[in-house]
Amino acid sequence: MSLLDRLHARLERQPPTRHWRVGFSGGLDSTVLLHLCARLRARGLLVDLQAVHVHHGLQAAADAWVAHCTRVCQGLAIPLAILHVRTDGAASLERAAREARYAAFARVLPEDGCLVLGQHRDDQLETLLQRLVRGAGVKGLAGMPETRSLAAGRLWRPLLDEPRAALLAYAEAEGLDWIEDPSNADTGLDRNYLRHKVLPRLRQRWPGVDQVMARSARHLAEADELLGELASLDLQQARLVAQPFPWIPLPSLALAPLQRLSEARQRNALRAWLAALTRQPDSAHWAGWQAVREAGTASDPVWRLEGGSVRRGAGRIWWVPDAWQVMPSPQPVAARVGTLELRGNGRLIFTGQAVEAGWRIGYRQGGERLVVAGRGSRDLKRLLNEREVPPFLRGRLPLLWRGDELLAVANLPGLSALPGGGRLEWQPADGMGGFELG
């Protein structure tokens, strides 16, 4: 069976899709892939086909590569989108370029569209070895998945089972022209060192190592799938416990069900939970989880991760984005307003009562007291402790003042009543782009 027919067979196993986008760098792999896709289009498939070239500007010849890709796409009558990205100031240029590339692909991928990439079996082996020497876990050693979700669509790597030699033979037989990136010869880069120095020796000593390592990656991918199913079951138990503050728009889990798990199952469940929130913590960072898990109820441990922190409160763990670490500023309230947009802190709604002149919104500084019906004047700190308000939330709770008199605390039962019988309702911003967690 030819390479084209093998690709056709794999395409038939994919979900129905109208919009197809091919990542096209101009190199051998993507050139072969684009040529194959053009031939599949000639068979009546891949009707809405477009090439996407990401211009990093990292090579002096980058503009010439754009011109080359344009000529190739014109010859195949395939539309070409050119996306410019920047990676200025990145600590790891290789990683930053990769992340910028996928972010650009995600921006232009239509809903339910499919991005097709040309990575092959040699790329998979290099990825596996690179992650192995970096100490990756099961998920990392499973290598690149053939398919995964991307933005509102999905990503597909149909050539992962094909050796680079098969792509090269196809390109030469078809007389294709492609770009040779000079950086691919730089063995100072980890991936290139593995490609030029390590893999040739492995193949010389064990001629079947490509198939063996690819099989190992598939076994690990299966193991990772099983771990994912176990994590879903464990997270389901942690989500069954009712959230005591349903108006807090932050991801959270009940702590007790997690504490009953073994250490390994805890980490497995948390990796799955954190996957959509932050970069996966490495081995050294898990000490932060231990501190959160074992802290007393009166303490406020913080497990700092990229983009936010895991905090503890009200018998739960919470994902608190970095935006919540910046305390909001006090502000006056215009008379007779019904809704007040808070600076960086969502909005307030005054229900059942018009706002009076002289009211203002402030935030906790310490030492506040509130007159509570039937109890007299009470220390606000004690009132918050009684209601088990998570420590990370206390500095963001809007307080309604009239001069030096604290009138109400938003949302908390028994504390949110307005003087005239209304109620102070707060819709906090989630710190991740909106007022509700998507």
UniProtKB/TrEMBL annotation:
Pfam families: ATP_bind_3, TilS, TilS_C. It comes from the Bacteria. GO terms for molecular function: tRNA(Ile)-lysidine synthase activity. Its main location: cytoplasm. CDD domains: TilS_N. Residues 359-426 form the Lysidine-tRNA(Ile) synthetase C-terminal domain. Keywords: ATP-binding, Cytoplasm, Ligase, Nucleotide-binding, tRNA processing. It is found in: Cytoplasm. The keyword tRNA processing applies. It catalyses: cytidine(34) in tRNA(Ile2) + L-lysine + ATP = lysidine(34) in tRNA(Ile2) + AMP + diphosphate + H(+). The keyword Calcium does not apply. It is an enzyme of class 6 (ligase). Its EC number is 6.3.4.19. ATP binds at S25, G26, G27, L28, D29, S30. Belongs to the tRNA(Ile)-lysidine synthase family. The N-terminal region contains the highly conserved SGGXDS motif, predicted to be a P-loop motif involved in ATP binding. Ligates lysine onto the cytidine present at position 34 of the AUA codon-specific tRNA(Ile) that contains the anticodon CAU, in an ATP-dependent manner. Cytidine is converted to lysidine, thus changing the amino acid specificity of the tRNA from methionine to isoleucine. This is tRNA(Ile)-lysidine synthase. It comes from Pseudomonas flavocrustae.
